[in-house]
Amino acid sequence: MTTQAESYEFQVETRQLLQLMINSIYSDKDLFLRELISNASDALDKLRLERFNDDTLDVDTSDLHIRIELDDSARTLTISDNGIGMTRDEVVDLIGKIANSGTAEFMRQMKEAQQEEEAKTEELIGRFGVGFYSSFMVAERVVLVTRRAGQAEATRWESAGEGTYTLQPVEDAPQGTSITLHLKPADPEDRLFDYTDPRKVREIVTRYSDFITWPIRMASLQVAGEGEEAEEPADETVNSRKALWTRPAGEVTDEEYAELYKRISRDWNDPLETIRLNIEGTLQYQALLFLPERAGANLFSPDAKHGVQLYVNRVFVMDDAEELIPSYLRFVKGVVDSQDLALNVSREILQQDRQIESMRKRLTKRVLQAIKGLAANEPEKYTKFWGEFGRVVKEGLLQDFANRDAILAICSFESTHDAEQRTSLRDYVERMPEGQDKIYYLTGDSRPALESSPYMEAFRAKELEVLLLTDPIDEVWVDGMPEFEGKQFQSIAKGDIDLTSDEADEDKAKQKEEFAGLLTWMGEVLTKEVKEVRLSNRLTTSPACVVSDQNDATPTLVNLYKAMGQPIPQERRILELNPGHALVSGLRAAHQSRPEDPRLAETAELVHGMALLAEGTQPDDTARFVQLMAAQLGETLGK
Ligand SMILES: Nc1ncnc2c1ncn2[C@@H]1O[C@H](COP(=O)(O)OP(=O)(O)OP(=O)(O)O)[C@@H](O)[C@H]1O
After folding, report:
1. Which CATH superfamily is domain 502-638 in?
2. Which residues line ligand 1 (CB under 6 A)?
3. Which of 152, 189, 415, 612 has the fewest Cβ atoms within 10 angstroms?
4. pTM of the complete model beyond 0.90
């Protein structure tokens, strides 16, 4: 007995939604498969739950799965599940109408938005799921056959996505739902691919649905070898199903974590550290994050990718979810799986969403905590980590003021205390001798350059520890950093540093008097270059050095801002002379005896130029500097 198919009209809203789908509101048409697989997976979940609640039910739960079948001659893609299925009434309610309150709301807002501007429409699309109807993006006709588990009668629904659909009872249908898409001709230019190509379909499944709990089966890709009889290919499960974050931590092995890490990060090495997070409550999500062992090549390129993927209920939503993790933690790889977001949530929405903001805060704290844990308990791992990613983490000192203290606490720096090991600020502060109330640092290009810098002389003589900050970013954050645990940061190349004891004050006053004439005169000679010439308390062996005033920017910082396209002015600096050096005392004597000698002004210029060279910068006019130097050296030989 065959029953005639009866034709029905779609609800007005449904028709409008179908129109949208046919005209494709998604630019990425591959998403239809993600939607259908998600529905199938839900149907399997529902059946399992129903059986769990009532084990006398006459339903088959022995081999719950999803199957995808392709037929390139008929140009069909069929996706079936042996889940809960639908009764005829359910088909009418769920598929024929927009029963889903979310979708109805979507349509209402969509209508409003269409009267406004395009952008708003785009935004709305991301806020709601539009599930089953997305089949019409790729299919010109859809046939759905479904049998409610435990019931005999099945229903066949068919539609071309226009005004009507037909319903027809069928016999002998298997339990669950099978949806056959009669595909539109492929049009890759419109991102409509050939969905009868098993490779393409597998690629979509592994991209979006790899972590679906239920097996997704497809015919094996193996082709018969030469001379072999082509056999009916066996089924193969194409998704890994390994959503490790949904399993209790104790049950997952390190190997499994490493395998997952490698897959999502495309790194060959094992992760350095695995971080798990399981948040329950009004906002539910799990995160499985990894700290890599090595920095990737493009970590510092302007379009460096963030490593966190966003999933909704184990379904992939997007890569590179920079809304979830701040850019100074962009090396963190992993997965965040939320139970509260819409499947096709868009970036625009993520950016505005307060829940996302709260997730981001939570994840950031957790990662910082993990790094702190490494520093405290696994120093070797920490050292490795910091060597690779310290530079990136320090960007956070400039970006994330709320976590500034937490970031400072996990930083470590090279220091004069130890040639091999970096030090934390905490350890530096603990080593500070009585009377030292500042954290001393020097910024520059490399450790050897800093160690041999003239600024270091008095500190070396006094055995005072100095942090050697050699990353360009150090220059920037340290400049604006108020303090660490109540101790201010002090550049030893800035301001008036005096490490001498009070008893020496009398000697200093005397010296000041003796040199007053020289200092004033040199100040006049060099007035274009420096704002002051004074005696130094920081030099023991060099004749002179240039320092920046306490609140002025150093030349490196000036250059950095220039490179970033935000130039700041370079203030004139201060020239400090070492009264104990023969060149300085000799210049004083010469100036006293023959103040009119033009050669002395040239010597003053040379002293300034040498001080610049010693700090690693250059005199403005190097050619002139070299000429003066050669002339004066020549003269000494002639004597
Ligand atoms: N494979 C299936 N098996 C059983 N029921 C299904 C299946 N596919 C869809 N349904 C039913 O049809 C309803 C509508 O599906 P549709 O995909 O349009 O929206 P949704 O899944 O509810 O929401 P969304 O996809 O927007 O999150 C589903 O809620 C479900 O009850």
Report:
1. Heat shock protein 90, C-terminal domain (1.20.120.790)
2. 35, 39-40, 43, 81, 83-86, 94-95, 100, 102-103, 129-133, 177, 343
3. 189
4. no
